[in-house]
Design brief:
The structure holds two protein chains of two kinds. Chain A is an alpha/beta fold. In chain A, about 45% of the residues lie in helices and about 10% in strands. Chain A has 20 helices and nine strands. In chain A, helix 5 crosses helix 6, helix 15 packs antiparallel against helix 16 and helix 18 packs across helix 19. Chain B is α+β, with helices and mostly antiparallel strands. In chain B, about 45% of the residues lie in helices and about 10% in strands. A four-stranded mixed sheet of chain B has the order 2-1-3-4. Classes of the chains: A alpha/beta, B alpha+beta. Chains A and B meet through helix 7, strand 3, strand 5, strand 9 and helix 14 of A and helix 3, helix 5, helix 6 and strand 4 of B.
Chain lengths: ~425, ~180
C-alpha cells in the first residue's frame, strides 16, 4: 500500500466526504448497489469470508464466518453496529463516523443485505451525542436518495437504519450487554452460548459488528477479496486503524497495513517519545492490555493478531498506549484497575469483587501504605479472577496487573519500600 | 393510577418518533431515549418522570429507575445545569489531564465532583471519552445534549464556563417570559 493511501480514513484525502453527494462521486454506494442487484446474499457473505476480514472491535473473529452463522430458521434478523467505542486508548470509530460516515453506513447496509435483515441499529455510546445527531441526518439523506427504504435499486429488498444512544457504560461495548441495553434493560452480559447469530436482539438472529469492521465491507465488495488481501498479512489481511496515544510526540489515528511493526507506528508515524525519554512499555489493546516490555524484539514485532501474543500482548482494538520511563507501573495499574472497578456491571462475583479488592490494594500501593505482602496479594486476587468472569471485562481487568508485576517488579519494590521481598518473589515465580 | 401527562403532551411528536424506531411489541427499547427527553429541561429525572415513562412503555417504575442508577449519564438529583466531565483516564492522564482538572477546580474554588455556588457548573472526573490523542479534554453535558472540547487549557475552559453562565442567564430570562414551570 502506498504510504498515504487510506481505505478507511479516506476523508483525509477527500474533503467533505461526509456529504452524500461527494461520497457518491467517489463510488459511494456502488458496492451496496452491486450487492443488491448482482449478488445473492450468500455470495456477499462468501466474498467477505474470502477477504479474510477479521472483527476490528478487539476479538479479531472472522467477519464472514460470523455472518454465515446466522440462523436461517428464525426471523427476523438484525444488524447491530457496535459504536460504543469506550476502551481507554481507542478513538478510531469516532473518526470514521465523523469523517467517513457513509462508508460505515454502506457497510451496515451491505451486512444487512447479506443476512437479509430489514432493520439495523447503530448503538453509540451516549457521549457520541453529536455524532448521533449527524448520523440521523445522514440516514435521512440516504432515505431521501432512495438508498434506504422499500424496494432498493428496484429489487425486492428493504432496509431501515436507526441510531440508539447508550448512556455511559463501558460494559455495553460487550456485545450481549449491548443487546440487553438496546432492549431497554440494564447493560449486563448474557450467559453464552447461545451467541447473537442465533439468539441476539429480541432473541432473534443478529450480527453485531464494530464500526471499523463494517467500514471495511464496501471496498471488499467493490474491489474484491483478492484486492483486499494485497494489504496486511495472510492471516490478518487489510489495513487497520491504530489509535496511538500516551507518551508519544504525535498521537492520533494511523491507518496502516496489519503487520506493520510497533517501531514504525511509534517512531515513524508518532514521532517518537517526547523530551528525549525512552520507551518503557506498550499497551497494544488499551486498558485491557498486558504491558509489553518495549525492547527491540517487541518494537520489531508486526502488529497483527498472531504476532502480538508472541511478545506477551494482544492486538485487541489496536489502541496503542505508549508508556515512557518516567511512568510508574503501580500508578498505571491503579488507573486501569479503577477504570474496571468503575465499569464492572456487578453481575458476576469474580469481576465485581475482584476489581473492588484490586482497587483497594493498588490504592494502598500508590499511597505507599501497602504492606510488603500486598503486592503478592494483589497478584493473587488477579490470578483468582482469571477464567472465572462472565465476560471479557473482568478477564481483561487483570492483564495489566499481572503483567505489570511480572515484568516491572522493581517498580513495586520502590513503592512499598525496600523490604519487599525475595520471599514474595519466590511465591510469584511458583504461581507462574 | 397516574394522571400525569407532562412528557406525553410536551414531547408528543418526539415520543412518537422514538417509539417508531423499535418494533411495536418492543416498546421497552425506548426507555433510554425517553430518559434523555425527561432530562432535557432540568438535567435530572424526577420521580414523576419515572412513573410517566413507566406508564408510556408499560414497564414498572422500578425498571425505569434502575437504569438511572446503572447508566452514568442519567441523574435522579439536580446537580449543576452544566456538567463539565473531564476525562482523567490513563491516556489522558499521561497528557496532563489530572493537573488540568486540579487547576480548573482551584480556579473555580471547588473540589472535583462539586458544583459552583451558583448551582450552574459541576466539574467531574470521568472515564475514557474516546479522545485520547487530544487531551486535556472534557465534555459538557446539559439537558440539550453533549459537546466535546479537546486540546484544552485552563484558560479556554474558564472562558467557555463564562459563556455557559451567560447562556444560562439568557435562558432563565426567556423561560420567565414564557411563564413556564421548568419543573413540570
Amino acid at each position: 500500500m502506498a504510504e498515504n493511501e487510506h481505505v478507511l480514513l479516506r476523508h483525509r484525502e477527500i474533503p467533505d466526504l461526509d456529504n452524500l453527494v461527494v461520497y457518491r462521486e467517489h463510488n459511494g454506494f456502488k458496492a451496496f448497489e452491486k450487492a443488491v442487484t448482482q449478488m445473492q446474499p450468500a455470495e456477499v457473505t462468501e466474498e467477505v469470508k474470502a477477504s479474510g476480514l477479521r472483527g476490528r472491535g478487539g476479538a479479531g473473529f472472522p467477519t464472514g464466518l460470523k455472518w454465515s452463522l446466522i440462523d436461517a430458521k428464525s426471523w427476523p434478523h438484525y444488524v447491530v453496529a457496535n459504536a460504543d467505542e469506550s476502551e481507554p486508548g481507542t478513538f478510531k470509530d469516532r473518526e470514521i463516523m465523523e469523517g467517513n460516515p457513509y462508508q460505515f453506513l454502506e457497510g451496515v447496509a451491505i451486512c444487512a443485505y447479506a443476512i437479509q435483515a430489514h432493520a439495523a441499529y447503530i448503538y453509540l455510546r451516549g457521549e457520541f451525542w453529536q455524532i448521533a445527531v449527524k448520523l440521523d441526518g445522514q440516514i435521512a439523506a440516504m432515505e431521501a436518495a432512495g438508498l434506504l427504504g422499500q424496494n432498493l435499486f428496484g429489487a425486492d429488498y428493504s432496509l431501515k437504519i436507526f441510531t440508539h444512544l447508550g448512556a455511559g457504560a463501558y460494559i455495553c461495548g460487550e456485545e450481549s450487554a449491548m443487546l440487553e441495553s438496546l432492549e431497554g434493560k440494564l447493560g449486563m452480559p448474557r450467559l453464552r452460548p447461545p451467541f447473537p447469530p442465533s439468539f441476539g436482539l429480541y432473541g432473534k438472529p443478529t450480527v453485531v459488528n464494530n464500526v471499523e469492521t463494517l467500514a471495511n465491507v464496501p471496498p471488499i465488495i467493490e474491489r474484491g477479496a483478492n484486492w483486499y488481501r494485497t494489504n496486511g498479512t495472510e492471516k490478518s489481511p487489510g489495513t487497520k486503524i491504530f489509535s496511538l496515544s500516551g507518551c508519544v510526540n504525535k498521537p492520533g489515528n494511523y491507518e496502516l497495513p496489519l503487520g506493520t511493526t510497533f517501531r514504525h507506528l511509534i517512531f515513524e508515524c508518532g514521532g517518537g517519545i517526547p523530551e528525549g525519554r525512552s520507551i518503557k512499555a506498550i499497551m497494544a489493546a488499551g486498558a485491557s492490555s498486558s504491558l509489553i516490555t518495549a525492547n527491540d524484539q517487541a518494537l520489531d514485532t508486526p502488529m497483527d493478531y498472531e504476532s502480538v501474543p508472541s511478545v506477551g500482548g494482544q492486538l485487541g482494538s489496536a489502541s496503542v498506549i505508549i508508556i515512557d520511563d518516567s511512568i510508574s507501573i503501580p500508578w498505571l495499574i491503579n488507573k486501569t484497575v479503577h477504570f474496571f472497578r468503575h465499569e464492572s456491571c456487578g453481575k458476576c462475583t469474580p469481576c465485581r469483587e475482584g476489581t473492588y479488592w484490586m482497587s483497594h490494594l493498588t490504592e494502598r500501593i500508590v499511597k505507599r501504605t501497602a504492606k510488603t505482602e500486598d503486592v503478592a496479594l494483589l497478584y493473587d486476587v488477579a490470578s483468582q479472577m482469571r477464567g472465572k468472569c462472565l465476560c471479557a471485562l473482568g478477564e481483561f481487568s487483570i492483564e495489566a496487573v499481572r503483567s505489570g508485576i511480572d515484568r516491572f517488579r522493581s517498580d513495586f519494590d520502590l513503592t512499598v519500600g525496600a523490604s519487599v521481598v525475595s520471599a514474595d518473589q519466590e511465591k510469584l515465580t511458583k504461581d507462574e | 393510577m397516574l394522571e400525569r401527562k407532562y412528557l406525553a403532551e410536551k414531547y408528543a411528536q418526539e415520543i412518537q418518533a422514538i417509539l417508531e424506531k423499535y418494533p411495536s411489541d418492543r416498546r421497552q427499547s425506548a426507555v433510554m431515549p425517553l430518559l434523555y427527553l425527561a432530562q432535557r429541561d432540568k438535567m435530572y429525572v424526577s420521580r414523576e418522570d419515572i412513573l410517566e415513562i413507566g406508564e408510556i412503555l408499560g414497564i414498572t417504575s422500578t425498571e425505569v429507575a434502575s437504569l438511572i442508577g446503572f447508566y452514568t449519564l442519567y441523574y435522579d438529583q439536580p446537580k449543576g445545569v452544566y456538567r463539565i466531565q473531564v476525562c482523567v483516564d490513563l491516556p489522558c492522564a499521561l497528557r496532563g489531564a489530572e493537573k488540568f482538572l486540579t487547576e480548573l477546580c482551584d480556579r473555580l474554588g471547588i473540589q472535583p465532583g462539586e458544583t459552583t455556588p451558583d448551582g450552574l457548573i459541576a466539574i467531574e472526573p470521568v472515564m475514557c471519552l474516546a479522545a485520547c490523542d487530544k487531551a486535556p479534554m472534557f465534555q459538557v453535558q446539559s439537558g440539550a445534549g453533549l459537546t466535546y472540547h479537546e486540546n484544552q487549557t485552563v484558560e479556554n475552559a474558564l472562558s467557555l464556563i463564562e459563556q455557559l453562565r451567560r447562556d444560562a442567564a439568557g435562558r432563565r430570562v426567556a423561560g420567565h417570559e414564557r411563564g413556564r414551570d421548568a419543573n413540570g
